[in-house]
Predict the structure.
Amino acid sequence: MNDQELKTMRNSFNTVKNKSKPFLDTPRTIELQEKVKDIKINAINNMDELMDEAINSFKKNDINVFKAQNDLKAQEIILNLVKNEKNNEYIAKSKSNTLGEIQISKFLKNNGYELIETDLGDRILQLKKGDNSPVHPTGPASHLDVEEIKNIVNGALNVNLKADPKEIMEFVKKDVLEKVEKSDIGISGANSIASEDGSIVLIHNEGNISLIASKKLHIVVAGIDKFVKTIEDAVSIAKLETIYATGSAVTSYMNVISGPSKTADIEKKLLKNMYGAEKVVVILLDNGRSKANKECLYCIGCGNCIISCPVYNAIGNEFGFNNYLGGRGVAMSNYIKNTETSYDSGLFKCTLCGLCSINCPVSIPTNEIIEKLRNYSQKQGFSCEAHKKIKDNINKKDSPY
């Protein structure tokens, strides 16, 4: 990220901070925070039981379920599903950190399929040549100003748009819709899964997930940390995430998917395949979650930790791992990949100031997790060179200098 992108990102973050302020200290939000903390703690502590319950509920709801131990298995399952669909020139995708985690866009492209991002920010990054990683979970292109976005879209789509947000949005929307109409496949993540109900809950502001969910085949990839007990629990999480992620009281759209499209409007006889998906497939991804620090899995995906992080505000998305940004992303990379990946993602860049934990709506102690991982990484042979010099100086000279 260059200096201008960092400046734009910080300005975008300040906008979210200012929009969120009126909500954060209200009794309603504080009560919601405590409720969501309890929901997440109970859910992560009972993850295996909730997963078993969800699988049984999915089957009752005519939803197909697969388990994927790692990213390679998830990719394999998706590829087999895609191959079985005739109209697969384009695959429509919504914003998802989990799909970023398994690098699904790159994987499908390498296998001859073109995946179309339907979220405006993700689509802009998709059209950008190089350095197209997101900077925020709900505002992936928050580091790009309108002039740079204009140049990206004009260059990629061979048009001559002005640096006008409305004009850019309308053109990108038109282009996306033309491609998505040619697809029978939609792929998304999930904000939460209500195990008791066998329901997938997705939140969005653009309305694009409704397009994804209406495709003939809707593939949902969700981490096993997304389980909660009920739809009501999932809605509570969605409300809190929206406040912290966008500064709005509630999201524009909330999709609850509990099975393929069906109707019983003719003599109350059940008929499948009305307007929505003919087939819904859920892929439950472990990828290190079952061995991860439980507190790391409390995350609701709002991104408020990176908004308040001094390191992230200084250097941007090089502090983090794939779509998991900042200190929590560094920590997750240790479980998703390995200690070396965590080290390379910025394990020793963190100042351990704790601002991420203070500003986390569910109080994830990321700085404490990072500190423990540093201790572990040093035992594995990964440590900061500057720290080694200080240690050697102390041993040799009784001074760090």
User: Anything to note?
Assistant: The radius of gyration is 22 Å. Residues 106 and 115 are 9 Å apart (CA to CA).
